Amino acid sequence: MAARSALFTVMERAARKAARSLVRDFGEVEQLQVSVKGPGDFVSTADLAAERTLREELHKGRPTYGFLMEESGDSAGDGHHRWIVDPLDGTTNFLHGIPHFCISIALERDKQIVAGLIYDPMRDEMFWAEKGHGAYVNDRRMRVSARSKLDDAVIGTGIPFRERGDHPRYLAMLEAVMGKTAGVRRMGAAALDLAYVAAGRYDGFFEFGLSPWDVAAGIVIIREAGGFVEALGGKGDPLNDGSIVAATDRLLKPLGETLLAAAAAHDRG
Question: Of 3, 17, 97, 156, whose CA is between 20 and 30 Å from 186?
């Protein structure tokens, strides 16, 4: 069994408590009060309730830490520690009765992500890692896949919708990846996609227009599972850049180069 620290215990307790209300509300999804937050971006009473629970439980366990949360934004703490939280990643899936969503919690210490947890309550799968101590799904150690060729790889992605993102540019990159891989998957929850890379279910992942709470936990979990994460082009910070490419050591470069070449060809017209 994986050794669980006091920090992980705080994160796990918060996630499981928030998940209980999400699972209950998922069973009554048609009765939820839903307001439109933006194009295709919904916020539900379940989402807000989960965030309140997470804030209360994490504050109880570590009262001096600050927060960056999807719904309530940034709040100051001791200046060294900050929880980065998405209470419900995959909200559109949730509101359409699709059982693929998660809670994501990461801890940032002095600008470095040092712990992450991604919990899928419908499958009771908890993906977690602390920097320097490996990555796990529940009590099983995780490693990224051993595949080394793009033509054997399954790649996850997130597809822009409505007026979000540059659709033609994205489609050019998607077409390039489709032509070089064994398959592409679009599941609708970026944090779980990153967890699947860490677990070896996907061999890589790319998406654009993301926020820190979408990727923070996944960054440390993938790295502790032996994978690599970077912003597209390798120059930005994947936590704050908005673009992310994640893969095994042998696939990160060819996947990134495929995306960049397709984007450049599209930009040239």
Answer: 17
Half-sphere exposure of 151 (CA within 13 A, CB side): 0
- In the numeric block, which tokens belong to residue 239? 């936590």
Of the candidates 78, 81, 96, 91, the one whose C-alpha atom is nearest the C-alpha of residue 51 is 91
Q: How much of the chain exceeds pLDDT 90, in percent?
A: 80
Task: Centre a 10 Å sphere on the Cβ of residue 266 and count the other Cβ atoms it contains.
Answer: 17
Q: What is the pLDDT of residues 53-94, one digit of tens each?
A: 999 999 999 999 999 998 777 788 898 999 999 999 999 999
At 104, is the secondary structure helix, strand, or coil? strand
Sheet hosting strand 102-109, strand order edge to edge: 73-75, 66-69, 81-89, 102-109, 112-120, 125-130, 135-137, 140-141
Within a 10 A sphere around the Cβ of 148, how many other Cβ atoms? 13
pLDDT tens figures, 190-202: 999 999 999 999 9
